[in-house]
Amino acid sequence: MFVVNITICSIVILAVKGDIEDKSPAPSNSFYSFHVVPPIDSLYSTPFITYMSSPMLKRLKRNVVYFTVRAAMIKFNLLPRWLAVGSGGFVGWVAWACLPRDRARMHEHLRMAFGNSLTVAQRRRIGRRFFVNSGKNLVDVLRFKRHYAHDIKPNLKVEGLEHFDKAYKAGHGLIGVTGHIGNFELLAVHMASLGYRIAVIGRELYDPRLDALLVENRASMGLTNLATTDSPKKYLSWLKGGGALGVLIDTDSMRVRSMFVPALGRLSNTPVGQTILGLRAGSAFLPMACVREPGNRYKIIIKPAIEYQLTQDFEADVKNVTALCTKELDEIIRAYPDQWIWIHNRWNTRPPDTP
Predict the structure, then answer these.
(1) Per-residue pLDDT averaged across 318-341, rounded?
(2) Alpha helices for 143-207 (secondary structure H)
(3) Which pick of 3, 18, 203, 274 has the fewest CB atoms within 10 Å?
(4) What is the rounded CA–CA span in Å between residue 328 and residue 286?
(5) Is the pLDDT assigned to residue 203 strictly greater than 80?
């Protein structure tokens, strides 16, 4: 069973991450988007597959991914947590060892962010540990439905809950600002388990069956799923009704409105839709993340609400608040560098007039 589960987890990570990479660098908020391998098309580059039409290949790939995900959810829920999480970590290690191109990409991005403060060995270790952490995080997410209350929640602590509680009770809505740091799906699930009304914004997955599976998994844990295609009025209504909205703001995306603010030491194209919504609703902005700790435990870090002064220039206010939120997330990333997606090119889009 150990070998079978490793095989299943490997296919899930390879197939699903490949489709995300093929489409765009936009964040999906999906628990599958761990960004650890190259596009799946390279895995099927045999003459027979090449001969197949693109629609046929796409259907085949989607069916493989969907049924493998279903099988993985069954298998990993039958194993004790130590074995299931250990299997996920091993898969991450294997992926790291087999993907030299991604290792090189992470190495370069770490160099860009940290300069010479990290040695080559330290960059390599951070990259390897990110892959291992990602495999472990994925397994825990697959086990949410059956094992969260008795297997995962007892191994989680919260630092700064008083900041969240204060902002939530103000009644003007709350923007939970986070990124692809640690187990961001668990962050939302745990806050919902404490009795808060939590919604997350998620881009629809390429396969409606997988999308339904994701939404169902979130709903079963008490989360409200808001689609990126929903009207902004729906988001505003949620916030004005006093709900909390979780958003990921740490990727360079061409799909959403963005502004250039400093991130990890460089000007970075950063989504601002969440800031516009929060300012319109009068909501608080709280940077937060859920990071792994030794012993397969987690810690949720919640920082105080961002403090800012509004001006007569709304665009300037949006940029300022986004920059302040990003700065707080940067501090978490630098404190836990092996838990952020260094495989992603945070600086792919350059400001105008930049060489």
Answers:
(1) 97
(2) 144-147, 161-169, 184-193
(3) 3
(4) 9
(5) no
Please give the C-alpha separations between residue 96 and each of 31, 83, 122, 124, 126, in angstroms, as whole numbers. Answer: 19, 20, 15, 10, 11
pLDDT at 119: 95
Instruction: Report how far residue 98's alpha carbon sits from residue 17's, in angstroms, rounded to the nearest whole number.
Output: 15
pLDDT per position as a tens digit, 50-93: 444 578 887 888 888 888 888 888 889 999 999 999 999 999 99
Given a contact cutoff of 8 angstroms between Cβ atoms, the answer to whether 244 and 176 are in contact is yes
* Paired tokens of 248: 């990921």
The Cα 261–Cα 2 span in angstroms is 45
- Cβ atoms of 135 and 92 within 8 Å: the answer is yes
Which residue, chain included where needed, has tokens 């009644």?
A: 171
Structural element, H or E, at residue 270: strand 266-271
Give the integer Cα–Cα distance in Å for 14 and 43. Answer: 9
Distance, CA of 130 to CA of 137 (rounded, Å):
10
Encoding tokens for residue 170?
């103000």
The residue type of 344 is: H
Q: Is the pLDDT of residue 266 over 50?
A: yes
User: If you count them, how many residues does the chain have?
Assistant: 355
Query: pLDDT tens, 115-136?
Result: 999 999 999 999 999 999 999 9
Is the Cβ–Cβ distance between 74 and 119 less than 8 Å?
no
Closest Cα partner for 305 from 287, 291, 322, 317?
287
Cα–Cα nearest to 273, from 216, 226, 331: 226
With CA atoms as reference, report the closest residue to 345 among 101, 157, 174, 120. 101
- The whole-number pLDDT of residue 355 equals 63
